[in-house]
Design brief:
The chain is α/β, with parallel strands linked by helices. It contains 15 helices and 16 strands. It has helices at 9-25, 31-47, 49-60, 65-90, 122-135, 149-162, 175-182, 195-206, 230-242, 262-276, 292-307, 362-370, 385-394, 429-435, 458-467, and strands at 94-96, 102-109, 112-116, 139-143, 168-170, 188-192, 212-215, 221-224, 254-258, 312-314, 333-336, 353-359, 377-381, 399-402, 423-424, 437-444. Keywords: NAD, Oxidoreductase.
Length: 470
């Protein structure tokens, strides 16, 4: 039932009820039991590495197999291993200060965690959430994206081979299954995906007062300071943007460039791109857009910008013709200073298109960023400590990487999450453990005068009066 493509709400609820009953029937998992569960997940990634790479490539039409091996196998594997190494420490009660007696937080599992994972990193983001949920001692249900059907079915088979349905289960299917999934009374729901879909997920979860962690996206700005090493900055920006053909929630969405360095930025971008991808169309390292729908969406951005008179600078070293191809590849394209009224400057791009915006002062840059929805990531390139601090303190984003892009997400000890339209809540590392746990407050008082219990004799009044002071 956990792998049927047409699972009904009743089917999904049956799995949830089975997991909740199993959770309540036994003592909370010990550290050793949680480690054993994590070890099973580790084994799945190691034993099925080649199948994962092939399934993801098939779902994308074409995706770099080397990139997939790093992001869909090695990355979640490292997450699971780090989680395993630290979870015993995380499980310890956390002492809190009190003047009288003893106070502490006791972390206990919530119960059943629902995970809605996206198509752009289908294994990575499913197993990343799984790591935190298992570390916290929960049962888990996963609904992967219908846009990656082969990978989703593979994950369902993998999970079923080592986990019982009352431990971890995968539910596959289309949007109607996703709607039914996020309408269930989970103890916590983790969703990774578009902001527009996140609103529907939160609305459905609210019917059962299910707490949610929403990992959304938005338009992550990149700032190149006049103090930056321009070539190094452009190299890192183009490299990050080309990961997964820009289909990353943290991809640099647009770049602020000092106005006098704009031409040098463009020339450097062409050189950098050409050194990585001398050809594109049949290059095994250059990833395809996921499907026809997103291909047409990106082409629509380009058409609208072209009609508005925006200069489009195609980074196509071999001058290849993409009109006849087996996949949905798009040549990386810079857009010179597109207007804010264009969709490419309103929507999260999620593709190999990169608007570049000239600026005069850093104050103008910060004002622009603050006039728009708060992004998931922000990137600053420069060596001016005062300017860096100005950007950090005067902008709000989910996270920041300095003199690089995206990489703060790879640090397991940092919480990963958005703010406002780019998400709510966070996970990864200990923060993920806490997200999927209930921090129960426990207090053991010692005997002494009870200032709130009548009769309020003079001695009590004197004690109260002595305590009311500056």
């Amino acid at each position: 039932m956990s792998t049927q493509a047409n699972s009904s709400a009743a089917d999904i609820r049956a799995i949830l009820d089975k997991q909740r009953a199993a959770f309540l029937a036994v003592e909370p998992y010990s550290a050793a039991q949680r480690i054993e569960l994590i070890d099973r997940a580790i084994g799945l990634l190691v034993d099925h590495a080649d199948e994962i790479v092939d399934a993801v490539a098939a779902d994308f039409g074409h995706r770099s197999k080397d990139f997939t091996r790093v992001t869909e196998v090695l990355s979640p594997l490292n997450t699971l291993k780090q989680t395993k190494a630290q979870l015993t420490e995380w499980m310890q009660p956390e002492q809190r200060h009190t003047e009288r007696g003893e106070a502490w937080l006791q972390y206990q599992p919530l119960g059943v965690i629902g995970i809605l994972s996206p198509w752009n990193f289908p294994v990575n983001l499913a197993f990343g959430g799984l790591a935190g949920a298992l570390a916290a001692g929960n049962r888990v249900m996963i609904k992967p994206s219908e846009f990656t059907p082969q990978t989703s079915e593979l994950m369902a088979r993998m999970i079923r081979s080592v986990f019982s349905e009352d431990e971890v289960a995968v539910v596959t299917g289309g949007p109607e299954v996703g709607q039914a999934f996020c309408s269930q009374p989970f103890d916590h729901l983790l969703f990774t995906g578009a902001t527009s879909i996140g609103k529907h997920v939160m609305r459905a979860a609210a019917e059962n007062l299910v707490p949610v962690t929403l990992e959304l996206g938005g338009k992550s700005p990149t700032i190149i300071s006049r103090s930056a090493d321009l070539k190094a900055a452009v190299t890192k920006i183009i490299t990050g943007k080309m990961h997964n053909a820009g289909q990353i929630c943290l991809a640099p969405d647009y770049v602020f460039v000092p106005e006098e360095l704009l031409e040098e930025f463009i020339a450097t971008a062409k050189t950098v791109l050409g050194s990585y991808f001398p050809t594109l169309k049949d290059n095994p390292d250059f990833t395809s857009v996921i499907n026809a729908r997103h291909f047409q969406r990106l082409q629509g951005y380009l058409s609208e910008a072209r009609e508005a008179g925006v200069e489009l600078i195609e980074l196509n070293p071999a001058g290849e013709d993409f009109s006849d191809q087996a996949h949905h590849k798009i040549a990386p394209t810079l857009l010179r200073n597109p207007g804010d009224e264009l969709k490419v400057m309103q929507d999260e791009i999620f593709g190999p298109l990169l608007p570049i915006k000239p600026y005069h002062t850093i104050q103008q840059v910060v004002a622009y960023i603050n006039a728009h929805p708060r992004p998931l990531g922000l990137y600053y390139f420069g060596n001016d400590a005062a300017e860096e601090q100005f950007v950090l303190t005067r902008t709000t984003s989910g996270g920041v990487t300095i003199n690089e892009v995206i990489k703060h997400v790879t640090v397991e000890s940092l919480p990963f999450g958005g703010v406002g339209p780019s998400g709510m809540g966070a996970y990864h590392g200990k923060d993920g453990f806490k997200t999927f746990s209930h921090a129960k407050a426990v207090y053991r008082p010692i005997d002494g005068p009870d200032l709130m219990r009548p009769p309020y004799v003079e001695q009590v009044r004197q004690i109260v009066s002595s305590l009311i002071s500056r």
